[in-house]
Design brief:
By secondary structure, this protein is α+β, with helices and mostly antiparallel strands. The protein contains 10 helices and 22 strands. The model has no long low-confidence stretch (mean pLDDT about 95). InterPro entries: Metalloprtase-TldD/E_C, Metalloprtase-TldD/E_cen_dom, Metalloprtase-TldD/E_N, PmbA, TldD/PmbA_N, TldD/PmbA_sf.
Length: about 450
């Protein structure tokens, strides 16, 4: 089936060239997903979906157009090509447009990244996992309601063909459990959750374990105080610490740098983190949530150290943004079926530090431990940062009472420079960080 599909997409691209396209590429994505959800013991969701999407991009000189369809039948290819070519001829030129000249040559259908699991849970098994998670959470004393528990799985096949000689495909699977519950009552009610997603089913955390964790977290958040306004150390739980990597990645994409809209646009080669900080993007990690054998333009991927010894080493580039900057792509193009490639990170993470989370906060007389963030006011041009948050007070080096209804504010350059990392890195979200501490934030509270 894989080879037949690749032949079909290759035929589409070949036909586009014969119809007058100077170059062409096509992306085909086929997905199957299933999920089950419950709330307070009642089944709220049972779903299964199968989708197909095909995107064709054609070039007429430096002009290009993209058309997508959900019915990838060869009998409709000629009409698709004709419409795409007509669009390309009337659109404005883009001097940076074109296929990636560094893309691999040949056909690639095998990889050793272990991205495809053969396990296919039944609807009954998904529903049983969702119920087990909720029941475990509701069994925690003080948990008063459920906001829902779910389990899901899916399989996605990706095919990419270019007229420059690349043809490749890979399959990715995913499995997940999530539980969200409430504790307390009335205006004092608090909510929390736990979630886990993996490529392989056998690596997925037990739903009962996640439910228990969600319930305990909700209980711990009862009766929060509003911390005093001031400036003191802030420690971030791993599930929210990765947000700083997201802000960092957005600021170093080739698109942002080429537009001059990033607060890091003049920082290449400079130290922006402490000397012991390393940030890596690794699309080749086995069973990685965002791993892939080739990027969205057919280029061979490899690990990329974005920060070494605290210094910014590279932008995140696809071929178009690389041309704008007079550089070469570093195989970080992402591609959908309805738009052109663009630069994007994959498995992005901070290398862990040497201190345990306990040691990281041991000297904090008064501070905050953040477990959830909401809202976002980030100025990409200046790096100014402001977000609502909740979590716990830190007193004399220990996590203390729950805290809520406050805002964190600062500048990302100052935050980055003051980051200290713990040693508890766990590859769980795709963008991952260990427990993280910064002393560069102001708190607006009571």
């Amino acid at each position: 089936m894989t080879e037949q599909t690749l032949d079909r997409i290759s035929d589409l691209v070949a036909r586009a060239r014969k119809a007058g396209a100077d170059a062409a590429d096509a992306v085909f994505v086929r997905s199957v997903a299933a999920g089950a959800g419950v709330r307070n013991g009642v089944t709220e969701e049972l779903e299964r979906s199968e989708t197909t999407d095909l995107g064709l991009r054609v070039f007429a000189g430096k002009k290009s157009a993209i058309l997508s369809t959900t019915t990838p039948e060869p009998s409709r290819f000629d009409a698709l090509i004709e419409q795409a070519m007509a669009m390309a001829r009337v659109l404005p030129e883009d001097q940076y447009a074109g296929l990636n000249p560094l893309a691999q040559q040949g056909r690639f259908t095998q990889n050793d990244l272990e991205l495809a699991d053969s396990a296919e849970p039944t609807t009954e098994e998904l529903l049983a996992r969702a119920r087990a998670g909720e029941e475990a959470a509701l069994a925690i004393k003080g948990v008063t309601n459920s906001a829902g528990s779910s389990a899901s799985c899916g399989r996605t096949e990706v095919f990419l063909v270019t007229s420059a000689g690349f043809a490749g495909s890979y399959t990715r699977t995913h499995h997940s459990n999530s539980v969200c519950v409430l504790a307390g009552s009335g205006d004092g009610m608090q909510r929390d959750y736990d979630y886990h997603g993996t490529v392989w089913l056998r690596d997925l955390k037990d739903a009962t374990e996640l439910g228990k964790s969600a319930g305990e977290k909700a209980i711990a958040r009862l009766n929060p105080i509003k911390p005093r306004t001031g400036r003191y150390p802030v420690v971030f739980h791993p599930r929210v610490a990765g947000s700083f990597l997201g802000h960092f990645a957005g600021a170093i994409t080739g698109t942002a740098i080429a537009r001059g809209t990033s607060f890091l646009k003049d920082k290449l080669g400079q130290s922006i983190f402490a000397k012991d900080i390393t940030i890596t993007d690794d699309p080749t990690r086995k069973k990685g949530l965002r791993s892939r054998p080739f990027d969205g333009e057919g280029m061979q991927v490899a690990p990329l150290h974005l920060v070494e010894n605290g210094a910014l080493q590279s932008w995140i580039l696809d071929s178009r943004s690389a041309r704008q900057l007079g550089l070469q792509s570093n195989a970080h193009a992402a591609r959908g079926t309805s738009g052109p490639p663009g630069p994007s990170a994959t498995n992005l993470f901070f290398e862990p530090g040497t201190l345990s989370p306990t040691e990281l906060m041991a000297d904090i007389k008064e501070g905050l431990y953040i477990t959830e963030m909401m809202g976002s006011s980030i100025n990409g041009l200046t790096g100014d940062y402001s977000r609502g948050a909740s979590g716990f007070m830190i007193r004399d080096g220990k996590i203390a009472e729950s805290a809520a209804e406050f805002t964190l504010a600062g500048n990302l350059l100052d935050i980055f420079a003051s980051i200290t990392l713990a040693n508890d890195l766990d590859f769980r979200f795709g963008t991952d960080a260990p427990t993280l501490r910064t002393d560069a934030l102001s708190i607006a509270g009571a």
